[in-house]
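To make the argument concrete, we let one protein speak, a sequence paired with a row of structure tokens, as a model reads it:
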Amino acid sequence: MPSEPAPISADARHALEQERATVQAERGKVAATLRDSDADVGDRADAADELQRADALQRLDSRIADITTRLTQAEDAGPPPADRVGVGSSVTVRYGDGTERTVEIGERAEAPDRDLVTADSPLGRAFLGRRPGDTVTYDTPEGRATAAVVSPGRGNGPSGTTGG
């Protein structure tokens, strides 16, 4: 999670809210399988099983807390900037070869998404804070590349949780 509040797009917010609901439902199922701590534990296999479920419950609680913190930070940060590129922005990019593509600058990637660039990727870092007309240089596996900001705006495109 970021150390300072960063905005996220409406789609990213929705994806995080859905993930939190899914994790909370899973947490409820796992919690229902845990025994009362005062009950006698059966054999070692039962005890090991119980420890695994308790560990799973702890991981689920941690993820719920992380998501809740991120949603609160996004609320504190307000909407993504409309006049410059920021986390949560949708930005139309013109690459050095003349092709254009609209991508969203997201916080992290959960699954491959061609239209999502993470803010900590070389391209994402190069674009943060840029305005229309700004040209950036960034590193790729093939070497240095350039791209220009055609139009930044508030993100409503791909989920703000991965890629690039």
Residues 9 and 88 are 5 Å apart (CA to CA). The longest helix spans residues 44-77. Residues 155-164 have pLDDT under 50 and may be disordered. The longest strand covers residues 143-154.
